[in-house]
Amino acid sequence: MDLNSVRRLRRATLADGRLVDLTLVGETVADVRAAAPGSLEQGDLDLDGWLLLTAPADPHTHLDKALSWDAIQPGSGDLETAISSWLAYIGTVDEDEIFARAIRALERYVHNGTTALRSHVDVPLEGDPARGVRAIARAREAFADRIDIQIVALAARGIDSERVDAALAAGADLVGGAPHLSDDERGDLERLLAVAERHGVGVDIHADEALRGGDTLEMLARRTHGWTSSRTASHCVRLSMLPDDELDPLLGLVAEARVGIIANPITNLYLQGWADPVATPRGIAPLERIRAAGIMAAAGGDNVRDPFNPMGRADAFETAMLLITAGHVPIDAAWDAVSSGARAVMGLPQAGPEAGLRADLLAVRAESLADAIATAPADRIVISRGRTIAHTESTRWMLPRRQEDV
User: Fold this and answer.
1) ∠86-236-126 over CA atoms, to 5°?
2) What is the pLDDT of residues 311-333, one digit of tens each?
């Protein structure tokens, strides 16, 4: 059938095991009820044998850096090594090169089921401050009918505020930066927050992206308490190293200030711990402790094959799997972190296979949520705003077993 004409999803299995029929009206799931017997009608999509999930959202990506690893061929190393490799490369390319890589990355995200993402985009100390933002804004426009994209102006440490202004004027939605890398952590954070306040926009700050040292998260919580604009701290790997008597008060402060936290397991597993060759720390923000404290929690895929991470598939199943295996996050909570939790941190309308929610859905060939995260099935149907935007089918073949072995 024509997947663009789908109005009803039949015999879908939900993560809780229910077998249901869903009716879509416009961009919304209008009705969910127990699957009924009977033949398919016009506009029905048979999802017998498919698992239907809330479509993933990625709250922390870097589209301007995506898929640059092969061109750069950087040496392995920590965060500063990755930064130096990237800066040496980005000065040699133009806006069109950034745009082309972003388009390729977005195609992967969409085929894998992502219907919303937030990309940090560098605002450099020198040269055109809006070049990267313009490139990603062009890519956003190219995908505007398929995926929601937010852009964060990722300001270089010690940057002049006027350069961040230019990035916002070029299409960035939020202010970001990495004050923990600055010689003046507090001053750098204050400068970024002042720009956000002047423009009336939210912030998403790279915070405490080291196993030891850094107070950006605490300063952000104290400084933005009472803000109505969104504020998010990404990475926060230092939290994984704090003893209870330091961690619990800090999480209480963050919860009271209503600052969201985004963990980024794959990149932090790669970048952290190079100085600890024995009993190497995992460097993943402790999402279960964060959730238990009442903090909005999410997880992102972060870097996709660039100097900060040579791996990455632009696939939420990869992020959820790492949360489970390396972060000890329960299976259902891991998927929430890359879907509903991610949408909450991003301030987007809630979505999923529930009446009244936005019809952003992902159907995969799997028996259960655990099976889907474990196997990351290739067969997927992606629905955004009630419309099918991607469909992947795979074929499998294996030499038959000998008859005498059957």
Assistant:
1) 30
2) 999 999 999 999 999 999 999 99
Q: What is the fold of 59-346?
A: TIM Barrel (3.20.20)
- The pLDDT confidence band at residue 297, using thresholds 50, 70 and 90, is very high
Q: Tell how strand 380-384 and strand 387-392 pair up.
A: antiparallel
Task: Judge contact between 69 and 305, C-beta under 8 A.
Answer: yes
The predicted model gives 75-81 an average pLDDT of 84
Assign 76 a pLDDT band (cuts: 50, 70, 90): confident
Burial of 212: CB neighbours in 10 Å, binned 0-12, 13-18, 19+: exposed
- Asked if 152 and 121 count as a contact pair (C-beta separation under 8 A), the reply is yes
97 CB-near residues (< 8 Å, 6+ apart): none
Let me know: does 339 contact 316? Beta carbons within 8 Å. yes
Domain layout of the chain by residue ranges: 3-55+352-392, 59-346
The continuous run of DSSP H or E covering 84 comes out as helix 79-90
Q: pLDDT tens for residues 158-180?
A: 999 999 999 999 999 999 999 99
- Other Cβ atoms closer than 10 A to 393: 9
**Each residue of 91-135: pLDDT tens digit?**
899 999 999 999 999 999 999 999 999 999 999 999 999 999 999
Phi-psi label, residue 235: left if phi above 0, alpha if psi -120 to 50, beta otherwise: left
Per the rule left: phi > 0, alpha: psi between -120 and 50, beta: everything else, 154 is beta
Query: Given strand 297-299, what is the order of strands in its sheet?
Result: 57-61, 116-123, 148-155, 174-177, 203-207, 231-235, 260-263, 297-299
Helix (H, G, I), strand (E, B) or coil at 311: coil
**Residue 262, token pair as written in the block:** 């985004």
Sign of the Cα torsion 299, 315, 319, 210 reads negative
Q: Which residues contact 294 (CB under 8 A, 6 or more apart)?
A: 255
The CATH homologous superfamily to which domain 3-55+352-392 belongs is Urease, subunit C, domain 1 (2.30.40.10)
Contact predicate 234/60, CB 8 Å: yes
Tell me which H or E stretch contains 220: helix 216-224
